[in-house]
Structures are given as structure tokens and as C-alpha cells.
Known about the structure:
Blueprint: E1 3-6, H1 15-28, E2 32-38, H2 51-84, E3 92-98, H3 101-110, E4 114-117, H4 129-138, E5 143-145, E6 156-160, H5 164-172, H6 174-180, E7 182-187, H7 204-213, E8 217-222, H8 227-238, E9 242-246, E10 249-252, E11 255-258, H9 260-266, E12 273-277
Parallel strand pairs: 1-2, 1-4, 2-3, 4-5, 6-7, 6-9, 7-8, 9-12
Antiparallel strand pairs: 5-12, 10-11
Amino acid sequence: xxxxxxLGGNVDRCTPQVETSIEIAKKLGRPVEGLLAMxxxxxxAMYFVSAEAVMAGAPxxxxxxxxxxxxxxxxGKAFEVATSSAGSWLNAEFVNATGHVASIAAAxxxxxxxxxxxxxxxxxGHPLNPVFEYTLMEERLPSLLxxxxxxxxxxxxxxxxxSPRAMRAVRAHLPLIQALGQAVVAHxxxxxREIAGTSFVATPEALSDxxxxxxxxxxxxxxxGKVSEGLMTLAEKHKAGLIVMGAYGHSRIxxxxxxxxxxxxMQAENGPALALAH
Length: 278
């Protein structure tokens, strides 16, 4: 198993993502894999009946191949510089793959202890945004958005509303929560999800007791008002380096629609790392 760092987008902004991956790897005692997945350059060609159209596609393939070679070199160098500076304890590998990018990322994510995307991957228009949304929302694989600072310290702040998504998020990211050793269960009573027959299991106190059994010191803190603002306030108060929460939303013919709280926290550029599950 490994910590998967899904690379893409602006190479000059990948440092916080790689540093977040290294921090997680250190806490979990795992290696880091930097994955740069790219589409097949042949898909840039336009194939019609006429020979002229096929020939016209060749320069496009060459241009894409050249751009991919440059990106491969730049990301590989940036990844090597960041991981080498971590020290000899870290086992790191840079991997380049070609094909359907989202499927490649999902396949690697399944066998990873944690999958880290750049913070900007939550924003529409970023090259990795469709990949991030596909693995999280369609394949239902737990994912992390990197901390803006590249650091993960302090307690984990758990956004708790008693829903199956919140439960899956805690369960999926439990090894990292255990590595931090402490958690704050943040609960807004006005935002509880109604789950028939699970009233006790879904309480923040039940989660706190369960975390104690899993060797995590946990406290419950109640807040009110807008959820995203309350969570960010509590994260700052407790100096939490990680927010764990369920991602709410649904798909619609090529477009992902996240709920307001999920979207607000994903777009918090200066926020702590965000551990998600759907």
C-alpha cells in the first residue's frame, strides 16, 4: 500500500500537494507514489474518410506528445526535488501512465492508503477536476485535497451529522485519524440527517466512544450557524490540520453538483487538508 499523489495542472503549484502526501506517508509509515496520468496523444488526431484529414491530424498528435514529454519531465523533477528533501526514510516513486486518466487514477487509488489531489482540483476548469470528481463521486473512493500549507498537524476535525457519508469518511480515513491521535467531533444539531433506526449510532457521542476504542482521544464540540463557517472557525481554534467529512452532491451528465458545505470547504484555498468520502 502507498500514499498516492495524483499530479496534474500547474507544476509550479504542486509543492503543497507533494508535501501533504509526504506528511501523510510519514504518519502512516508508507511510501509515496507520484502519479502523472495522461490521455493517449492519438486521441488528438481527427480521423475522417479522406486521407487529407488523417494527415492533418498528425501534427496535432506530435504537438500533444511534445507537451506531454515536457510535462512528464517537469512534474518528475518537481516530485523528485520535494521527496528527496524529506530525507532518506521516504521511499518515493514517480509513475507516468497513458490512457483514460480518470480510470487510471481510480485503479491506483483502490490500492492506496490515501489519495491526495491538489487543492485546485476541486475547482472547475482545473485539468484534474473531472478526475477528482469521478474517483470521489462515481467510484466512491475516499480522497484528500491537499493542505494549502502542505502540513498536517494537530487534531482531526470531524464534520459529523450522523449520515452514512460522514460515517464512511471517518472509517475510510481512520488510519490517518489514528496517526494524529486526537479528534474533535464537530456537531451542528440543526443539521442532523434523519436516519431511521440509527438514532444512537448516529450521535456524536457514539462516534466519540468508538474513536476512543480505536485509540483516538476524541471530544465533541457543538456549534450553530452556517456549517462551512463553523467548521473553519473550529479548525482555526483547535489548529486542526485535517477536516474529515462526507461529500454531498450528485452527478448530472458530465457535471458534478456538490452541496453547499462540501463546495465551500473544497474552495477554501487557505484551509487545512480535506479528507472526503461519498
